[in-house]
């Protein structure tokens, strides 16, 4: 491949990942009817890992894969991701209340705030994981990876399925492990701490891949990417400090913690990649070879939301089921300062469609840059 392998990196963010689908929809339009897969390397974390795996399943037809994602995300409802009925919410509340008040007598503590069994059912129904290996064998896909964090080791693992030449790697607190991807890997990468339960894979329990992910872009580089398109789920720089008088709600604190998990690692990694590119570009290939430097510049294009996704979530808070609104109101998530947490959980059409429209318009506004990256 004359222009090297292009990679697509999709970050985490729960319901915010609908923005990525809007970006992909615009890319499909920019490509037109060109056949094949523009991203032979697909890397994702959390909900972005689910989107990446869905594209890998349909790697033989990128347009079809995007259409499938659009169909699912446009009509998403919370009960397809986690149980939101009154019985489930009451049961969860009772377990947490019992654990807090009578911990000495309760043998089993609650595992999560929400039960994401519906998500397992959805992924099992719509994804045929055997097609990933077939896409690799047919040359439509080089590699796909999803990241998860081990609760015992504290390491960030990139589980990848790839062509034989792709090799595992180990760096400080992060490693790449070759495997056959299945639904457990997707549930592990999207297991938002406290919100969804951890998933056991082999000998360890794993949670959301954004936790302790020091280098979100590195799996794509390890898997052989020369060009990387990164699609984020939030703006890397928000407004400065503002005066506040009231004590922060639980929802505000939780939203801040989740934003730190999902956004901070990407900002640091992109800055580090830019510094390396600047340093390496100062030497021509012959000089790098003579000095034993195996690094080479990585072309990078980053697409991030042009608007605050928490503000959009706040406008659509009433689309949640009544019972769930009642529970979230109790921790302050239905207030303006709690809308960040809300933006990760609001799997409802008014919100997901608004994010898809934003992703589409943001990408079309940079159509020339995207076309140049895709070598169109």
Specify the overall morphology.
Answer: globular
Helix content: 40-55%
Distinct helical segment count: 15
Unreliably modeled segments: none
Question: What structural category arises from helix and sheet content?
Answer: alpha/beta
Task: Give, in order, the helices and strands.
Answer: EHEHHHHHEEEEHEEHEHHEHHHHH
Distance between the termini: 14 Å
Average pLDDT score: 87
Largest beta-sheet details: 10 strands, mixed
Strand percentage: 5-15%
Please report the total strand number as a whole number: 10
Please give a quick description of this structure:
The chain is 45% helix and 14% strand. The chain is α/β, with parallel strands linked by helices and 376 residues long.
Q: Can you offer a commentary on this structure?
A:
The protein has helices at residues 18-31, 47-57, 62-74, 86-101, 117-126, 130-137, 183-189, 218-222, 250-281, 285-290, 309-315, 322-330, 339-345, 349-364, 367-373, and strands at 5-10, 41-45, 143-150, 156-162, 169-171, 174-178, 199-201, 204-208, 225-231, 299-303. The chain contains 15 helices and ten strands. The mean pLDDT is 87. It is 45% helix and 14% strand. By secondary structure, it is an alpha/beta fold.
Question: What are the key terms here?
Answer:
376 residues; alpha/beta; 15 helices; 45% helix
Show the helix and strand layout.
Elements: E1 5-10, H1 18-31, E2 41-45, H2 47-57, H3 62-74, H4 86-101, H5 117-126, H6 130-137, E3 143-150, E4 156-162, E5 169-171, E6 174-178, H7 183-189, E7 199-201, E8 204-208, H8 218-222, E9 225-231, H9 250-281, H10 285-290, E10 299-303, H11 309-315, H12 322-330, H13 339-345, H14 349-364, H15 367-373
Parallel strand pairs: 1-2, 1-9, 2-3, 4-6, 9-10
Antiparallel strand pairs: 3-4, 3-8, 5-6, 7-8
